Amino acid sequence: MVDTKTKDKEVIKKLETLGQTLVQQINKGDNPTMELPVRSLGNIFFDQKTRTIKLGDKTSERQFLNIAHTRKFMQTTLVANEIKKVIQQNATVSIRDLYYALKHTIEGTQENTFEDQAESDPLIEDIEASLNLLREELHLAASAKGIIAGDMVVQDGKDVIDLAKMGSGGWSVPSNVEEDRIEIKKMKADYVLFIEKDAVWRRFNEDKFWEKQNCIIITGRGQAARGERRFVQRLSREHKLPVYALMDADPWGMYIYSVIKQGSISLSYSEEKLATPDTKYIGLTVGDVEKFKIPKEVTIKLNQLDIKRLDELKSYEWFKRKEWQNEFNLMKEKNIKMELEALSKKGIRFITEEYLPKKIKNEDFLP
Description:
The protein folds into 2 domains: 4-141, Winged helix-like DNA-binding domain superfamily/Winged helix DNA-binding domain (Arc Repressor Mutant, subunit A, Orthogonal Bundle), CATH 1.10.10.10; 147-361, Dna Topoisomerase Vi A Subunit, Chain: A, domain 2 (3-Layer(aba) Sandwich), CATH 3.40.1360.10. The chain has 12 helices and 17 strands. The protein has helices spanning 4-27, 70-88, 95-102, 117-131, 198-206, 209-212, 226-239, 251-261, 288-291, 304-315, 322-334, 350-361, and strands at residues 33-37, 44-47, 52-55, 59-63, 93-94, 140-141, 147-149, 152-156, 159-162, 171-172, 182-187, 191-195, 215-219, 243-246, 280-283, 300-301, 336-337. The strands form 6 sheets. A 6-stranded mixed sheet has the order 10-7-13-12-14-15, sandwiched between helices. The protein has a 3-stranded antiparallel sheet with strand order 9-8-11, with no helix packed on it. The chain has a two-stranded antiparallel sheet with strand order 1-4. Helix 2 packs across helix 3 and helix 3 packs across helix 4 (117-131). The radius of gyration is 23 Å and the shape is globular. Residues 147-185 form the Type II DNA topoisomerase VI subunit A all-beta domain. Relaxes both positive and negative superturns and exhibits a strong decatenase activity. Belongs to the TOP6A family.
């Protein structure tokens, strides 16, 4: 396990270097200036080598003596300083906590440092991007969202947790799953199954699919948060486990799959630490309607928003492979989408006892 104190010292050093640079500029009589990566769509690209979405090399300057920048410059230094304090106290706080800790009226004025959290959140991302760190490494936490089950034992601080004995609720994936926080003590699995929906995950857990099929089952309960994405990446890289994604057959489920695999545009500055490029899409697909004789009455017609999103997906570079273009074209041609729960029409346990086992055996994946 990576030593927490050593890692924290490295992060504090990066924050101090940022501050020291500004002090040096002030001592020279220069305009204090921060150089920050441009986090706009125009500075994002798909890296064919790493197969992840990445931030380009364009940067912008935030200058204290530029009246348009002054407030945001002040706020950025406040955020960086507060993060350093949190790390030094060996604490972890939410981004909401951070906002309230920093909000106060500036002495001698009637102006607040921050008016709402919408001002502080983007500055956290600026610091993440400029220092090449995840917010979890800055001791900032998000609410726990994902759940996981399987034949695996982890050490979380002083607690040793057996994921095979977590009952119907599973283990709640923490926000920070870095090696210095979560150590994988034991692992017995042939693959990881990433399930889009909580209700479907519960069917797989109740049916002990992970035990029968020797796998790890995890859900992000919709759009996956950073904690479960990072943990799946660790399972893939450290334990060489294949990762299969089980999503709704609609543009939204397929986009969630792409976020797990390639990353998201909004987090392009950190996707090498979050994305799992070897992830394969195991279903649901429109083609499964015929293949598994799924009754057509459980399919749903596409709406205008679905069609617009589908066209966007077709244009993304990471979806240009012919298998995906064929699937998108078929969805549009049939004018249908489908939820995973629709498979219950074939029987409550059809998805765990027939559908998934057959797909895995036949390696019926989309790349």
